[in-house]
Please model this.
Amino acid sequence: MLSTALEFLLTTVLNLLTLVFLLRFFMQLLRAPFNNPLGLMVITLTDFAVKPVRRILSSFKKIDLSTLFLALITQFLLQISLLMLRNFPLFVAGDAAWLGFVGLSLLGVLRTALDVFFYAILMQVILSWVNPHSPFSGVLDTLTRPILGPIRRLIPITNGLDFSPLVALILLQMVNISVFKTLELQLLGLF
Model:
């Protein structure tokens, strides 16, 4: 019982931390404005780790490798912690198991990256109904443009209705279910 509660707590905290690291990564990559409540919150929540890691790991062609590395390390810590809670013989695990840990960590980062875009699109849709001129609208528009732009070229706005967010949400969930679930099952087979 206590083990299950601890697993839930670790999963929640470390997945949220990964989400914030990836949000910072994508906001920097896509040049989203940081002078809004969301941007300031992301900087405040991630500066404790990003600043020291940036001294060691610099950017590569305007790609902030430090935040990406921190997201990967956070997922790796999550995978190791969960396996230790389940009494997995971690210290006698072979090379295939460690490869599985790294693969599950990469998969966790990719899945969380999809979640960043999924929730950004969802929030943008909700805000368009409630308050289209919200301080978050600029950030959400910048984050969703790489996904919604190509879909909007294929499915134009008809009668004032934009179906591109709906199509994008369905496609993101399909990738999550079909590709990532299959990869996760294959990686778990390494244990």
Notes: The chain is about 75% helix and 0% strand. The radius of gyration is 19 Å. The first helix runs from residue 2 to 29. The CA atoms of residues 151 and 164 lie 6 Å apart.
